[in-house]
Design goal:
homopentamer; about 230 residues; mainly alpha; globular; Bacteriorhodopsin (chains A, B, C, D, E); transmembrane (chains A, B, C, D, E); membrane (chains A, B, C, D, E); Arc/bac/fun_rhodopsins (chains A, B, C, D, E)
Chain lengths: ~230, ~230, ~230, ~230, ~230
């Protein structure tokens, strides 16, 4: 076993992300059994996104401790599963307030998966980095467009529940801010020729804490508050 | 630990398959508790097929990272369990719409297990590769025949549920297309003397994503939609 | 990690047994929650027997991959737990049809545990191999006697359920045929001086697939069918 | 991996204990959901004692396979958790028949934990071995006194349930006989200067099978029988 | 594997903490399903804090067995998750007795997370140790202030339940005493230049047993007693 030292901030951030994701996973898995029937799917999807995060963060930490830096593919592997899962979780969360078409579901799923895949192609030099960066950006902006101006926003806005509207507002904000770090990191390594000496991994870990933990817990909290609200009404 | 690099597409595809299968397994295991009683068995069987996939993909990835290519037996070991499981899942899915004989169950189970076994015998040179390929092909065509023209198709066609018919249509299509890659890969390595430099494993991983993940999730979605439908009726 | 090749039939049979036992374990653990109250215990015991099989087959495979053959103790360790469990499962299955004495329970448990222990003593040369073989044989015949001519058979015969009788018939047959391979293997290594070059392990794995998987699934299927039957009546 | 041979009785006894504890753990965890509400706690505590046993036996086996004997601390680490758990399980079992004071709970917990701790201090030469042995003996006799002549015995004796009385009788007997091997082993290594060449570990493993497995299963069986009895009444 | 000897008190304390945390985790996870609806969250949070403890204690033990002492970061990684979890558990426990503002929730969460983070910065020399120590102290005192004189104390005091008041009293005491060891250890390493030769880890393990195990079990016991009390009333 490789023992990391107290001053190794990168290893510490990986470990905190690892344990935090484990805590989030168990909480959300238990929470999925506590919330109302409509809310089980979004909570379960967030639990699974956190679970996948445990695996990918663990492997990224192993790579870091092996002393050769963390190839960025270790991050992309986890995102390729967790990002679509979170977009779908937001979809099912909005669907608790009204009907959404299957077409929207497929667009969100495919675009979020392609966004991660195209960025990976650019980072791995299988595609021209600039092109990949721009396509990834377009996909990301499309997703934001759906969240802010699309049918999901309409449905949530029209809902009677106060907590649902507030929950959707915060979740969208987490996705907007938290996911912005990925194109930024992509930009820095692809154009500015930055090599990950550990600081990029720290940034990604902080983003993951926001995106995978705060996002999932916010979904669970929204589910609880909405359930309470409707029980009172 | 062996650290793989960003440009190692084969390792990346193994890792994505690994995490995707883990996500599918947890979702289906949870889903099996959410669907109606008749639907628990097909959903559980798909969950188990995905779970087995985690183990076999993990070991195949380890073999790949050990740097000696992936002996094709690593794929066959997983298929020997997951393929019969999926055929049986389709059987129990069709059985939610009407009675099916135990004889059909046994034929499907035995033929799907033999199909994988015979192909393995060919690949391992325990049997003449051409003969093994042809026998495997016959078994596959028999299964397709049962799915398209057999009693299962009759029962589903006669069902009142719109969603069941559509679900069966898509699942059959996944099996038709997704499973076609296995005889193709078998053909290429057995006749064309192709040696797996990683690209065949990528192809198998993509096929596994389709067969083990998309298939299982489609079964779960069908179960949800049919349950909703019958609740409304 | 040791990578095994496609032509290593012994390693392949270990891996198939491993994944098959994992699939069986999960299916039976889930199934124990689905069957009627009386049936939970036999199904759970079969699930546990399969779970123990995962551990012992995994360790036996590791020993095989380490390249020194599989010391037969690896098989005995698993059997020492799984065989008594299966005998007790059959006892509780028969008990769903009528009362059985606690004395019978203790005789079956002790004799099945001693049967495995005595054979091990013979294989390890702690006891004269011929003597151990003969005592083991007597214990096995005693168990078969109880299954075919004892109180369990009477109780099942007297039951009204068609499916229970048929299930008991098949389970007894599995135990009769599947367990016959163990004294045979014991005989071959103890008397004929056979050294396990892998083929004996293949035979034991095939027997394990029959005894641990088929047995457990047959118990689950019987439980389902009997529950359905009594719901209809 | 270290492969142990068929004639290595110590490794075999560790492996049997390992698999047996795993089987017991799963059975008791499942059983805790099947028994009446009052019985969940004692059954769950026995399940946890068996679970802890898996971990400590696994590590002791690893130490044995590393070829340097098993430092006795590996046994004590497991006992430090499992012995108090079992004493508390017996307390809660007796409490199903009547009220017991919190003071008794605390005395039993503290004395059983101290008994293991003091013996460890003696074995590790942190305390004079004779003194530690004697203090440990006094603690053990105190526990036996509580079981045979204390409030727990009164409560159980006064209970109407036949099965509870019989269950308590057997559990107390298991603790009396099974736990006697620990001060005996302690005596042999501390005074007679015995060095563990594996035979002491075999003895401890046999005792563990009695204490952790038979004890837990007897608690579960008592819970079942009492529940049945009170359902009939 | 590294085998530790009987006289290695540090390794023994790590192992006891490891198995004790595992036992606590399973007990609390099961207990979360047994208590009333309001009590599920605090019990679940304590279960998760214990679960995280398993991971961090395991890794700290591995570091210790690797023979280079335990870098203090291994402790901080676990505390960064478990301390906020326990503060939030206490918050939700008090909330069973009356309404508490979301603002208090956020203050407790953020302050407890910052307390651990600032101490880590000091230990890792990323911040001046004295400054970090003092800021950490202020945060700790703030938390104690909330527990003793804040809204949580008011709410619990005003509650009718005797057991809730007593439970809160003990839990607060555990946090007061048990958490005092952390600033003490921080002080010793940061100012007195103490280097951890194992004895500090022993102290931390004893504190962890108090904080993570006793705390969680006390929450579960309170939940049981309050539920019983309100069932009787």
């Amino acid at each position: 076993m490789v023992v990391y030292q107290t001053s190794d901030l990168t290893a510490a951030s990986f470990s905190v992300a690892l344990f935090g994701l484990a805590a989030t996973t168990v909480l959300l898995l238990m929470g999925a059994a506590w919330v109302g029937q409509k809310w089980r799917i979004p909570v379960a999807l967030c639990a699974i996104a956190a679970l996948i995060g445990i695996g990918s963060v663990y492997e990224a930490r192993e790579a870091w401790l092996a002393g050769q830096g963390v190839p960025v593919v270790y991050h992309y592997v986890g995102w390729s599963i967790s990002m679509p899962l979170q977009v779908i979780a937001l979809f099912f969360l909005a669907r608790t307030a009204g009907t959404l078409t299957a077409g929207l579901f497929w667009r969100l799923t495919v675009v979020s998966a392609l966004m991660v895949f195209v960025r990976y192609l650019g980072e791995a030099q299988f595609m021209h980095p600039t092109l990949a960066f721009l396509i990834g950006l377009v996909f990301w902006l499309y997703l934001l467009g759906e969240f802010y101006f699309g049918r999901m926003d309409d449905v949530v806005r029209a809902s009677t529940g106060d907590h649902l509207r507030r929950g959707y507002f915060w979740l969208r904000l987490i996705v907007t801010i938290g996911w912005a770090i990925y194109p930024l990191g992509n930009f820095l390594t692809a154009f500015a020729g930055m090599v990950d000496d550990g600081s990029l991994s720290v940034a990604y870990n902080v983003a993951d804490i926001l995106n995978r933990m705060a996002f999932g817990i916010a979904v669970l909290a929204t589910a609880f508050l909405v359930t309470e609200e409707s029980a009172r009404a």
